[in-house]
Amino acid sequence: MQRVVTPLSLWLAGRQSAPPAKVAESNPQVESPVETGRPITVGFVPWKLPRAGVEPGMEPDLIEALARGGKLWFAIRYHSPGSFRFGSSQMSFVSIAPRLGTPEEFTPPTNLGPADGRFEISEDSLFASLQNGIARYRFKERVWETIPAPLERGARIAWLNERLYLATKNSLLALDPKSAAVHIIAASRRRPAENDLDLAWSEDTQWSEDTQIWPRSDGKLGVLAGQQLFIVDPIKATPEHWAKLSGRGYIVNPLISMDGAAFLLRGTDFHRHRLVAFWNDSSEMDCMLDHLFKQDKRPPGAENVFKPSRWDWQQRYLLECSCVLNERDALWILNARKPWRGGWGRFEEPVVFKDQRHATLFCFRSQIRESQAVPIRFERMANRSTRLSPVGVSPLLSGQTGGFTILSGYQPRKAWW
């Protein structure tokens, strides 16, 4: 794998392979007697960026990723060599069929203004966030155009029911791309407040992971604002309170899917991680996994808000260094053998195996507390020092493309995949 150049897509065909073996508890520096059989070898599918309309010498970096319509979509920022955040840059968008590895690239003309990397895909268009509007690329006509919108500093974008939903600095908007008409769903500056989302919206969280919007499988819009969840019905266009994250802790990473919203929570005393979820058909918090990696000395009752976990996690494995695919009745977790941790970064091997795996793929099924697992070995990695840890901007473990798809690329101070 090359160091920076082109991100790679990885196809994991193991989802439909033979049934995995049961996982048993492992002690440090001792091989776990967990799986039988050899690790499944997983192949990288390399692809080369067309770089259409991109200045020569610019280096690419992955900014954002989506899985839409059986394809993977990426926002790529080209920048001057050795300069990721500063200096000249240019944004481009790429689609790729995972098994083929042949990308198609869409580069907005510079006269539209700078794109910030947030984008969305509909049946006939690509929509990208600009500083003061939306750029639209029509696939059939192969033309770029702009849609005016009051964004100020760009927006997160979601496509639902022929509308664009825009999470801006101080408001949640619904935009009709045909007429450019804008409807204000929520606004932090609206006084008096008309709904609970007006009060929950914060200007400080626009680009943090504490603000998310996404299309749900029931045809409604999901909204995360701080530690509160809301639903927006496209017909009524008014927000309804869905649920609230309870208990003390920090959101390490929200894991959004069409079935619901999951969260990896880190305790305030850094003693444990919990994986919890709110599903579309319920406002109750589903505690899926609990990783207690240091004895909790707080008084009993400090975290009584959490119910016992639905599944049992193998405590020697680091839950925080995993990619997660959350489904309503199943959970898939790819856990690195040697995760990259710490402020300055270091490799750790909490469980040592005699086989040549690079990671373990865990599967949790409904009604069965114990996990099943498959050892995974990535091809072309035998002699490479590869950091296996979720990419900060968008760890993508997606089941929407017919199998598992994992991103591979470099993010400064983040990780390799």
Largest sheet entry: 9 strands, mixed
| Rg, Å, rounded | 22 Å
- Give the uncertain stretches in residue-range form: 1-34, 381-417
**Shape category:** globular
Helical content band: under 10%
- Residues in β-strands, percent: 35-45%
* Terminus-to-terminus distance: 10 Å
Write structural notes for this entry.
- The protein has one helix at residues 196-200, and strands spanning 8-12, 21-22, 40-45, 59-68, 71-79, 89-96, 103-106, 115-121, 125-130, 133-138, 143-148, 156-160, 163-167, 171-175, 182-187, 211-215, 221-225, 228-232, 239-244, 250-257, 260-266, 272-279, 286-292, 322-326, 330-336, 340-341, 346-347, 359-365, 372-378, 397-398, 404-408.
- The protein is mostly beta strands and 417 residues long.
- The chain has one domain: Methylamine Dehydrogenase, Chain H.
- Strands 1, 2, 3, 24, 25, 28, 29, 30 and 31 form a nine-stranded mixed sheet that branches. The chain has a four-stranded antiparallel sheet with strand order 4-5-6-7, with no helix packed on it.
- Strand 14 (171-175) and strand 15 form a beta hairpin.
- The radius of gyration is 22 Å and the shape is globular.
